[in-house]
Amino acid sequence: GENVEQHPSTLSVQEGDSAVIKCTYSDSASNYFPWYKQELGKGPQLIIDIRSNVGEKKDQRIAVTLNKTAKHFSLHITETQPEDSAVYFCAASGNQFYFGTGTSLTVIP
Amino acid sequence: GAVVSQHPSRVICKSGTSVKIECRSLDFQATTMFWYRQFPKQSLMLMATSNEGSKATYEQGVEKDKFLINHASLTLSTLTVTSAHPEDSSFYICSGDRRQETQYFGPGTRLLVL
What we know:
The structure holds two protein chains of two kinds. By secondary structure, chain A is mainly β. Chain A is built from no helices and eleven strands. In chain A, strands 2, 4, 5, 9, 10 and 11 form a six-stranded mixed beta sheet that branches. The radius of gyration of chain A is 13 Å and the shape is globular. Chain A starts with a strand and ends with a strand. By secondary structure, chain B is mostly beta strands. The termini of chain B are far apart. In chain B, strand 4 and strand 5 form a beta hairpin. Chain B has no helices and eleven strands. In chain B, the strands form two sheets. In chain B, strands 2, 4, 5, 6, 9, 10 and 11 form a seven-stranded mixed beta sheet that branches. In chain B, strands 1-3-8-7 form a four-stranded antiparallel beta sheet, with no helix packed on it. The interface between A and B is medium-sized, with 19 and 19 residues.
C-alpha cells in the first residue's frame, strides 16, 4: 500500500518568514496531492492541491511543488502570519487516499 | 466551495448508550463518504468508507457492529457508536468526495463517553 511520510512534525517560524513542509509517497499510482489545514477542534480544510501532470501551483502566499520522479511534494507558505498557525496534512490519492502524519506549524508574532 | 456539515458538534453520553452522528454534504453530491477518528495530536485514522446505497467497507481493526454506518443518500451518511464506552471518546470527522478525487471534511464531532 501507499506510505506517505511528512516532515517536519513540528515547525516554528517568525512572522513574515517562510515555512516549508515536505512529503514523500511510495505508490507511483498516486496522481493527486491535496494539502489540508486543520485548526484546533475543527475539521481539515483543503487549502491547495496539485495533480501529477503539474509541477507547481501557487495561490497567493501558498504554493505546492511536485517532483513525480522523486515522489515528493512540498507546501510553501510565504510571509507567514499568526493565523497560519495550525496542523497541516499532506495526502496522496490514487487508488486510495492516504494522509501524512501532520505538521504542527507555529508562527511567532 | 464544497461544504460538509456534521451534527452534533459535541456530545456527552453515558457508558452503554448509543450515539448517532450525521454527516451531510450541503452543496454537492458525495458518492462516497469517509469516517475518520482522530486522537489528540495525531493524524486522521480512516475507520470506514461508505458508498451510497451500499454497505460500508471497514478498515482492519474497526468493529462494524460497534460503528454502524448508513449512507442512505448522496448527501447524508450517519455513524452510530453503539454501546459506547469511555475508550470510544474521540474526535470523529467525516468527509465526502467530489469528483471521486478530492475529500471535503466536516467540522468534526467531539464525543465524550462518561
